[in-house]
Structures are given as C-alpha cells and as structure tokens.
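Q: What does the assembly look like in three dimensions?
Context provided by user:
Components: two
Sequences:
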Amino acid sequence: MEAIKVFCPATIANVSCGFDVLGLALDSVGDEMTVRKTVKRGITISKIIGQDLPLETSKNVSGVAGLAFLEKSDYNGGFEIEIDKRIKPGSGIGSSAASSAGAVWAMNELLGRPFSTLELVQFAMQGEKLASEVAHADNVAPALFGGFTLVRSYEPLDIIAIPTPTELFATVIHPQIEVKTSDSRKILKTKITLEKGIQQWGNVGGLVAGLFQSDYDLIGRSLEDHIVEPIRSILIPGFDDIKSNAIKAGALGGGISGSGPSIFALSKGEEIAKKVAESMHETYQHIGIPFDVHISKVNTQGVKILA
Amino acid sequence: MEAIKVFCPATIANVSCGFDVLGLALDSVGDEMTVRKTVKRGITISKIIGQDLPLETSKNVSGVAGLAFLEKSDYNGGFEIEIDKRIKPGSGIGSSAASSAGAVWAMNELLGRPFSTLELVQFAMQGEKLASEVAHADNVAPALFGGFTLVRSYEPLDIIAIPTPTELFATVIHPQIEVKTSDSRKILKTKITLEKGIQQWGNVGGLVAGLFQSDYDLIGRSLEDHIVEPIRSILIPGFDDIKSNAIKAGALGGGISGSGPSIFALSKGEEIAKKVAESMHETYQHIGIPFDVHISKVNTQGVKILA
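A: Here is the predicted structure of the complete assembly.
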C-alpha cells in the first residue's frame, strides 16, 4: 500500500467526572487525511483545506507526531500528508488530537503495523505537546483506541479501553467563542477538598461500571463533576441552561467537552440525542451565539480507513 | 422460620485507591450471630462471646442497626441476638460493620425479606454511626452485597456491586496495636492537590475495569493510593516493609485495610496468598509485634446462613 485515506475522529475528553483521564471518540465528526509514502525521508504536509494551519512540519501537530513516529521507525522513506480539516481548532473536541492520531495511525498502516496502539498514542502525544504545551493523552487515546478510554497513569503510560454500550450517542454543541486551552487550565485551582475528591472518584468508578454493564441510568448518575465544571463553565455563556435543558430533553447527563467551549450530552439512542440537539439549538439561538451542533454515535473503532 | 444463624463477614474498606468508596467482603474471617424472633417488641442482646462489648441495645451496633430496621418495619414482634464475636474491634476489617450488617440481614430473612439490600445498608449504617460517629457505608455495603462494592454517592445513597474475579484472594495481617478510627481520620488533610486527585480517580477507574475484566495485572497496577496511605501508614509500624515484601512474594498490590492498623494484600490464587501471608508473618515476627494473619477468598455472597 502506497497511500491511504483515513477518518480521524473528534473526541470528548474528561467526560464530566474523569478530568484528565477519560475520553471518548465520535463517529460523525472528524477530519479526513490522506497519507502517502515518499522516497524522500521526513514528513511533508502538502495541502491543508478547511482551516488556515501551518504547512511547516515542525509547526503542524500531524508533522510533529509523524516525526516522533519516524524517529522510532526503521523505515527509510518518508510521508506526505494532505489534511481536510473539518474539526475547528479550539472547539474543545480534540482538533489537534485528530490530526496527530490520524497521521501516525495511517503511517503505521502503510508500514504494516510495526507499532502497537499504545506506541501510536505516545507519538501522537507529541502533537498534543505542540498544540497545548502538555503531552496529554485524553484525546489521542480515544482517537486511536476508539470508544471510551481511561488514562490510568502517565508514568508509565497505562491506557485502558472501556467497552461502549451500543446505544450510546453524544450530542455536542460548539458555541463560536474562543476559550484558550491555556486560560481554561489557568483558572483551575491546584488544590481541591478531599470531600470533592471522594465524590469524583466515586463517580469515575460508577461511570466505568455503568459502561461495562450497559447501565445507562448509572452512566447518567455518574456524569457529575464537582471540581472542574463549576469553575470552567464560567467561561462558557449559557452553560447551565444548555445542560439543564439537555437533561430535560432526555439526556443521561453531560458537561464540558475537554477544556470547552463545546458542551456535550450523552443519551440512550439516536432519537433522544436528536431531541437534545434541538434543545441545545434553541437555547443558543435564544442567547444569540452562533454555534454548530453534532450528533454522533460513540465510535468504537477510532481512526479508520475511508473507502 | 423463628431463628437463624448467620456468618457476618469481615470487610476491607478503601482498597487502596478507593478511599471512602470501595470495599470488599472476606470469606474466612467473620462473626457468627444467632437471631431469634421474639413476641416482645424491641431488640435484646442476650449473649456476646469472644469480646467484651455492651449488651445494652442502644450501646451495641447490632442493637442500634436492629432498631433502625424495626422502626421501618410493620412487624409487631422483636428480636433476640446472640453474637459470637470473632473479629476484633479496632482491627480495621469492619468489626462493627459485621455486627450491624449481620443483624439486619438475619432479621430481614426471618421476616421474608421485606427490605432491599440497599435498605439494609441504610439500617446497618446506623450501627456504623454509633461505632465511629460517621454513618459510613464502605464496610456495611460489601458485608451485605458481597464481593466488591462502590459507594458512588451518599445523597442519594447509590451502591454499585462490582463483579469479583474468581481467583482473587486477600491476605490480611492485623498487628495488635491500637489505632483509633477517630485519630486515623484526624491526621488526614482536608485538601489534596488536583494532581493527586487525578491519579486517584485514574486508579479507581482502573481497578473497577480490572475487576470487570478479571485483569489481575490491571487490578495490581491500580492498587495505588497517593493520598491517604502516605499519611495513615505513619501510624502502622512496619507498613512499608510488610507491603513491599508482600509484593515481592507475588501479591498484586495492597495497602491499609480501612483506617488500619490491618494491612491487606490481594493475590491471584490461594497459593500466592499463602506465600504473602508467610512474608507478612516473617516481617512482623522480625519487628516483634504480635499479630493475626488471615487468608481469604473474596466472599461474593456477603452475610450468609450457617448450617
């Protein structure tokens, strides 16, 4: 195989209670990327459509992730990358992770899968480091493994794939306002009360158990975040209304997607996910903020080949 | 049925990463309790052997739990309780929880199970409140549900039964020193760093996933506590040696049982659990502290009828 075209999923990190550890992959929102083997060594970004992003390898997340891949590989050639960038940078649904993950997944396919998925996560994390100064894994892990993932530990990196109930759908609304990842990290407190910590790890345990048992009610009850959401939601206009209206419309629960400004809700079944989208739509229309809404099944495959 | 004799299991609360939320039931360590219907209303504790504990209903945890049961019941009679107390109070393996849970479970059986297990947990929590001023559920929940349990939330009370891998064994050593529950709670800090919180909820998620998947390695990797263990272990002589020697002997991991002073380790299979017991035995013999060691399969049934 000389070239491959892949779908690179958007992802929701944190998933309410799982700040910095949980994430999930989306199915109907993502970039498309074509990766081609070249005789010339190194990584060339030949074309980017959809967004104004740097073509220079060392300044592009897929370039940097690709260089990390090449550095560990014994392949003597290089790769050329074309990106159809459909996920808006800064939306909070893993735009940089999709490009980083997609690039290294495609390269691995083209070379006959020399690396494990965990190794691909490590290469893709270098792209994340370029994007946000932190080599976090909570978006690239679900983008590469698919479904829900848990980053149990960073040293050593330990990623657990969590099964996804078949009827789980996500609704995501992206208000077109800018929230810098660095700002949304800066406003977090470095200390939390033990009491809130206990609530949080109770909910992470509950969410993981709910996913294993396809217990949708338990999933909903566990989608609580008493630590990060109360602080970060200040930066997102209409957050409380969007969330409470989504739950009124039948969502199991929801919260901030990654560091925002996107807001997500999880629902049992596509019907409810659509009603939730309508309620989000109405709420933001009422407030007067431009937005995109996405409805997606949870993607259990991660990055995948396009026909 | 007029009378019933039950086994009331000892329990390990917290289970390293799951401070205040996780617990598991033991199979070979526990009290025996005989509960008899009486025409006379109220609860009578007629006999306690094994330990010097109050017979007065309002001062005995099984009496108080029983009164909470009676208060919600439409039964017109009462109960008489005999306790063969084999779990030492203050050992950190749920001595008060065993008595509270056993009493209400037996009463419920005698009346044809009018209450759910969750309701029984709520009655038994009143016994815990008498014992330690806090109506905690992390010991009574596994004592009543069996296996591993997660207390996801207290308000409302939400308890999740987690499946138990079939080869999971616990080894517990109880050094005969006194650590007051109130002291071991007092030395805890009320604030923790967000960073340690993230590690902790990553590990809770990992432990729950490991239990669902019977992934013994993952269970072991998740048995980490960066918050409570470093502080509480100061009160337990030889803690670090006991734990590191247990792991050298093959244990998956371990930590403080409840608020201590007992120390537990989990192992895959009885053979390894026995070797871990030997290593614990040697360590404390070397230090010169008297102790009891228990080896037990995880009890998936909770309180149960004795022949």
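Follow-up: The CA atoms of residues 133 and 276 of chain B lie 34 Å apart.
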